[in-house]
């Protein structure tokens, strides 16, 4: 089979990509094969007769809403077999369920008024049968793939409208019974507060129970694999409930608006869980002042072992959360404590951290995630023999149980990719047509989420109420508290370690660091990882332990300034910055400066690979995608910049696509809209590019931003009110 680009076809209200498909339909004629020397009925190669058939595949590229809905009924005839799935997964970005249902049932489902071209020449009976079959096929796919679209309490208008149509046109059908059952199911179910679901808020506590700082002995009583299994259980329950279309950039990017505080609750729940795990790690390490250095080091070792167990379970979400906590400012700065962590465990920690390396647009984590998405077990490789033996032993125990495992991803990877796609591609093309090519690109990411959700059905985990109650009881330290306790712990460690009795052994340990024997130190380069946003209900001020020293490698970013003293050497050397989820803002927090080792970046992170990787999902072959605009790189007359508001939201960055035609008023207006401010106040603001800590570039009022900006530094801008 070969494909050839057939150009475009333009109709009223729609533009189609055409692909010519050439298929070999007959290889040889059987008659007389033996006389020509063939065995059986096969002709020898020199006498082979080949016949080919060329068919045309039409894939809608852009169109009005009416044309896109009509195409649901004709897609199979045009050989665009993935169209229905793509439309159902992405239409919420440009239409409501009610608008689509009304078009489908009232305009195309009504035979008297339908102008459906495919059945226009058939007699009325055949026309009715064909149209009913097509509509039934679309409705069946809608109920199978996106039944949540019809959950509209308390009226359920769309579901009632659908039921009325089925009673009149398909009475007593299986679909009518199915819709009736779905309506009863929705009506009987209580509306669940999904953002408080599963383990992360104090509302799950027993009466009279209060939040508490972790007791090290109680935490140590839980076996490493038990903790990993329970974290995986909670992550699986939340990830399976994620509604894929909530991840679309056009929807997720609207979460900061006041009227959208309840937007995408399933994603917010996942973010809250991620933050809870990270804060739990920090609290168990720093929460008890009386701990000795060795005891604190043992807790760090335990969390590294738990992270390794998460890796065996293919739980990349909690794995990322734990690594992020260990690389946070308050934990990483415990240099003396890290010296007491064993070499083997530190090597394991290094290998786990490398999974989230920012090299080549986080290619390692992306490839690993897709490689293990549908595999039965984790594929564990270790450069350290002891770790390799331990990994294989644990993995063999998993295999002996005979239970396959799913894969829990770090959701921030997909949110970032979808926001970047939304920023880089236009919603509408010439003529006001909906850009459906953008939706096809988005579906490539959505399909990965659905694939991983399906794989999670393979998990067979039983909740351990003792651990879950312990996890819920943990009081999370604020950023200020964790940093203060970190300084106290390190100060006490320095006092003990430099006492006359231990000074001799300390000199010996330091000498071994340079010789590369026995003792292993934390990574030579400071880890830069994912921070923790606050759990649900906390204020933004105490919601994060993230440092803002680093460059944003996420798109819609929130970052809280760290609490650190001016003389703190860590701040000057940019050590311990964090990156991660912020639950209150419902976003991924990040940092300024160099890209983060422990975080998943977006395609605009300035890495070598600027485009988003795509997979062959059986969609219709199209012409090659053009390279998307990216952050920190100007290409083909466009790029992506990040703009924050000076004073108002100086730690919140928004991604904006600019071209070589954009001047200051255009960019300023778009930035104000992104930050949910009045776009009419353009004249009151000036746009400034941050060159360094003590330098900035102020643009004249009518300057061309693309040509006027400094392309040799980060594309970070500030929108500031004029004096």
From TrEMBL:
It comes from the Eukaryota. Keywords: Guanine-nucleotide releasing factor. The lineage of its organism: Eukaryota, Metazoa, Chordata, Craniata, Vertebrata. The keyword Lyase does not apply. GO terms for biological process: Ras protein signal transduction. This is RGL1 protein. PANTHER family: GUANINE NUCLEOTIDE EXCHANGE FACTOR, RAL GUANINE NUCLEOTIDE DISSOCIATION STIMULATOR-LIKE 1. Residues 518-623 are annotated as: Disordered. GO terms for cellular component: plasma membrane. Residues 56-187 form the N-terminal Ras-GEF domain. Gene3D superfamilies: Phosphatidylinositol 3-kinase Catalytic Subunit, Chain A, domain 1, Ras guanine-nucleotide exchange factors catalytic domain, Son of sevenless (SoS) protein Chain: S domain 1. One of its GO terms (molecular function) is guanyl-nucleotide exchange factor activity. Residues 637-723 form the Ras-associating domain. SUPFAM superfamilies: Ras GEF (SSF48366), Ubiquitin-like (SSF54236). Coiled coil: none annotated. It comes from Hippolais icterina. Residues 540-550 have a biased composition (Polar residues). Residues 530-539, 586-607 have a biased composition (Low complexity). InterPro entries: RA_dom, Ras-like_GEF, Ras-like_Gua-exchang_fac_N, Ras_G-nucl-exch_fac_CS, Ras_GEF_dom_sf, RASGEF_cat_dom, RASGEF_cat_dom_sf, Ubiquitin-like_domsf. Residues 223-492 form the Ras-GEF domain.
